[in-house]
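Practice set, problem 2.
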Amino acid sequence: MFHLPAAYFEVGSAEEEPQPIYFKGHRIELLHVIELYQRGMSEAQIAQYFGGLDQDAIHTAVEYYIAHPAEVEQYMAEVNATAEKRRLSAPVHPAQARLEQLLRRKRSA
């Protein structure tokens, strides 16, 4: 697991694998900030995007990512794969099923 400063970060529930890493006092995950950084946003832009997120915490996260890119990217891949498995195994809402049925009919007409 990462060695991020406890002043800025906290680990989510041990029941979840991989355990999510949150910015302390927020439900914003390390993953979300690093994804925005990878897309070219600056630390200041990320701080503005998330509002109340401490810019020092964002800077610490980005520095950690730069120093340990393979470790962070592996973690991100595991989190994204787990989220995708959950999404695929979740039951389809009846409204969504009905819309998909209507779209199939329209496309085949």
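Problem 2, part (b): a different protein.
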Amino acid sequence: MSKPEASNDPFDTLRRLIDDWEKRIDGVANQVMGTDGFSLAMNKTQNLGLRVQKGVRDAMASHLKNINMPSRDDVIRLGEAVQAMEQRLARVEHLLEVTAKGAGNQGPRSGPPRTRKPPSQRGGQPT
């Protein structure tokens, strides 16, 4: 039996070494990740990360409160309130436009003509 011809290409050798290394790492990782211990450890690690994140958020909110600055939740609530006010304002503007269009369709004003002049045009003397 003849041996496979050895390649003189260093990149080919490196490529084979990396492929072999990847296969070995993949096999070991699959064995480790398939165990109940790994799942339990990942669950505990994730819970710890969430607790740390909550602690940092609470500490930051407390610190911001002590220096009289709004927290993230305060800014979110403020943004929601501004958005609600903008929606109400848009409804009011719409109603005013509809009312103005309706008022423009009315005929001439009924009643006697307005002949009284303001005091500035009468010579400054109220009557």
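Answer key, part (b): The chain has four helices and no strands. The mean pLDDT is 86.
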